[in-house]
Amino acid sequence: MGFLSNDQLTFIFGLLGNIVAVGMFLAPVPTFYTIFKRKSSEGFQSIPYSVALMSASLLLYYGILKTNASLLISINSIGCAFEATYLIIYLIYAPKQEKMHTMKLLLIFNMVSFGSMLLVTMLLVKGSNRLSVVGWICAVFSVAVCAAPLSVMRRVVRTKSVEYLPFTLSASLTLNAVMWFFYGLLQHDYYIALPNVLGFLFGIAQMILYMVYKNPKNNGEEKEDQLAGNKEVEQMTNENESCSVDDPDKETKISTCCFKPKKSNANKKMEVICTNV
Asked: Alpha carbon 227 to chain centroid distance?
C-alpha cells in the first residue's frame, strides 16, 4: 500500500474501525434479546457495559480535545448511545440486588469519576498537557474495557459453558483492536494504539475459550451414563424386590438392601433401604 499516504491510511483504518466498532456494539444484541425474552438479567453482568460507557465518554472527550479526530468522535458518540441503551434495558429487568449494584457502578464510573476528571482537566490542566492527561486516562480505561470480560472468561472455565460468552462479541473485539491499533500507530497516537494490543490478546483468548468449550461433550456423556444407571436400577427393582451383599469369603452376610418402588401420579421413584445383618 505504498501508493497511499499516511493520512489516507489513517482514514481507511479509522473508517474500518468505525464499521467494526459498530458491529462490536451490536454484538450484545442477542444477549439483551435473551434478557428481554426471559424478563430477567440473571446470569449476566453489567460491569462490561458500565466500563464501556465510561471509556466511550472519555474517548469522546479526548476526541473533542484532539485535532483531526472526527472518526474518534463519531464512533464514541455511537458507543455512548449503545451502552446507555443496554444499561437501561439491564436495569429494567435486573433483580433488585443487581439493579442496586449497577446503579452504584454508574454513580462511581460515569458521574463521580468522569465528572471529577472533567473538572480537574478543565480547571487545573492547561494547553497540550490537558490532552496528554486525558490520553493517559483514556488508555487506562481502554485497558479496563479489554479486561472487563475476564470475569466471564473465568465463569466459562469454571462451568465449562459458553452460554455467557458470545463469540460475535469476542470476534468484534479482536477486529476492532486491530483497526484502532493501526489507526493510532499511523497517527503516532500511542494512547490509542497501545491499549488495543491488549484488546487483541484478550479477544483471541476469548475465541480460544469459545472453541474449547462450545461442545460440552463430557457433560452429555455424564448425563447418558446417569440415565443408563437409572434404567439399570429400575430394571433390577422390577425383577427383584430385594438383594443382598455378601462377604467376599462367603462366610457372613454383611447387609441386605431392599428396593421399594414408590408410585406417584407423575413418576415412579425408588426408595433404597439398607439394613445391617
From this structure: 33
Beta strand extents in 103-233 (DSSP E only): none
Per-residue cell: 158: 469454571
pLDDT digits (tens, 9 = 90+) for 183-192: 999 999 999 9
Residues 130 and 65: their CA atoms lie apart, in Å, by 8
All three cell numbers of 274: 439398607
- Could you list the beta-strand ranges (E) of 52-174: none
- What is the spatial distance between Cα 33 and Cα 166, in angstroms, rounded to a whole number? 13
Torsion angle of C-alpha atoms 33, 35, 37, 43, degrees rounded to 10: 130
* Spatial contact of 188 and 162, defined as CB atoms under 8 Å apart: no
- Average pLDDT taken over every residue of the chain: 77
Structure-block grid coordinates of residue 172:
468484534
Tell me phi and psi for residue 163, to 5 degrees: -55, -35
DSSP for 86-108 reads HHHHHHHHS-HHHHHHHHHHHII
C-alpha torsion angle, residues 102, 103, 106, 112 (rounded to 10): -140
Angle, alpha carbons 45-49-52 (nearest 5°)? 145
pTM over the 0.70 mark:
no
Pair 133, 65: CB distance under 8 Å? no
